[in-house]
Amino acid sequence: MLQEAMKMIKPEMTVSFGGGSTVVRLAKYLCDEDETLRKTLKVTTPSLETMEILNNLNYQIVALDDVEKIDVAFDGCDYATQNLNAQKCMGGIHVDEKKAAKKALRYVLLTKPERIGKTYNAKLPICAEVEQDKADLFLKMADQAGFEAKNRPGIKTSRGNLLFDLHNEKCTQADAKDVETWPGVVGTSSFFDLCTDVIYEEKGKTIHLRKEELK
After folding, report:
1. How far apart are CA 12 and CA 116, in angstroms?
2. How far is CA 67 from CA 9, 51, 178, 186, in A?
3. Architecture in CATH for domain 2-114+191-203
4. Which range, of 29-33, 91-95, 115-119, averages the lowest pLDDT?
5. pTM across the whole model
6. Which residues contact 171 (CB under 8 A, 6 or more apart)?
7. What is the helix (H) or strand (E) element at residue 71, kind and residue range?
8. DSSP annotation of 63
């Protein structure tokens, strides 16, 4: 999988490394395999944890907000469909991850075969970043829509907002899209129509799904 991802990185590119252990493995693998290539790259990240690791690996780092275009962005996910929609509910940094995804020519998810499915996975919660002063209205909307909303206690995002996990095992993809329109919602962990590639390994074989090859 890492070798397949490496093929997408060329000299002088601007590359984003998102959150998660697999993406960090790729950043380290690149250094080990091609130090010359590593020195030509500009890299950015939506993750403070990944930022620290990239610093320690001596990458040339640029702030995400200062980058207009990203050649390729790598990220992980909790679940992805075969038509390249994704759910990223656990990390809670999805707003900044989406910022990287929208700037990227290729937005690539590195994942595991058990996290690939045909349709939206309603068993996973939707994580929503919500403005603090709109939290009460958000909770009313969640109740009306049939969601159980749980605040992540003691956690605020870099923008000073709250994180809520929304649970509803009858949720559809359309319902998930609707959550993005609720008052106070800055962004959600549902990644629709953003991903261009998914790479994973299954039974010793590397699988690379590409947007251009979808039927």
Report:
1. 32
2. 17, 15, 29, 21
3. 3-Layer(aba) Sandwich (3.40)
4. 91-95
5. 0.93
6. 120, 122, 126, 147
7. strand 70-75
8. -
Q: Two tokens at 6?
A: 């490496």
- Helices then strands, counting H and E runs in the chain, come out as 7, 15
Which residue, 114, 80, 79, 106, is CA-closest to 7? 106
Residue with tokens 């010793």: 204
Backbone torsions φ then ψ of 40, nearest 5 degrees: -85, -15
Dist CA 100 CA 44 (whole Å): 9
Q: Which pair of tokens denotes residue 192?
A: 């629709």
Architecture of domain 126-189: 2-Layer Sandwich (3.30)
Residue 178 is encoded by which pair of tokens? 């609707």
Give per-residue pLDDT as tens, 88-114. 988 788 889 999 999 999 999 999 999
Tell me the residue type at 120.
Y
The helix (run of H) or strand (run of E) holding residue 150 is strand 148-156
Could you tell me the residue ranges of all domains in the chain? Answer: 2-114+191-203, 126-189
